[in-house]
Write a sequence for this structure.
């Protein structure tokens, strides 16, 4: 059986989609922590290397910081990447990015999550 904590909110991100935290939160409440979980599986015996990144932008949408497999922690320590998984053979999420929203520096107004295929496969 799968047990889901009723206080936990899960959103499924689609290619090109936007997820606003306020749409998944009770009125006038925003979570203090969010986690991007990226999971994939090997198909037809071909290893696929997907990579998750977090891009932090200021109010003018200029890049303030980027967290990815070569820079695992944001400069302010509020965003942490679990590390690079190259084959998608883990149980559950293969890569995670955890964000402590209360610690994000005040100049950051937007955090975008990006998924790309390091091995070059098309993403649907």
């Amino acid at each position: 059986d799968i047990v889901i904590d009723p206080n936990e909110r899960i959103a499924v991100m689609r290619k090109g989609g936007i997820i606003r935290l306020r749409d998944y939160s009770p009125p006038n409440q925003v979570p203090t922590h969010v986690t991007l979980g990226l999971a994939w599986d090997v198909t037809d015996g071909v290893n696929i290397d997907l990579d998750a990144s977090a891009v932090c932008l200021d109010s003018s949408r200029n890049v303030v910081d980027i967290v990815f497999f070569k820079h695992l922690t944001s400069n302010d320590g509020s965003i942490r990447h679990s590390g690079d998984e190259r084959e998608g053979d883990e149980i559950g999420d293969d890569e995670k990015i955890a964000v402590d929203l209360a610690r994000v520096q005040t100049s950051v107004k937007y955090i975008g999550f990006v998924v790309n295929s390091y091995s070059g496969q098309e993403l649907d």
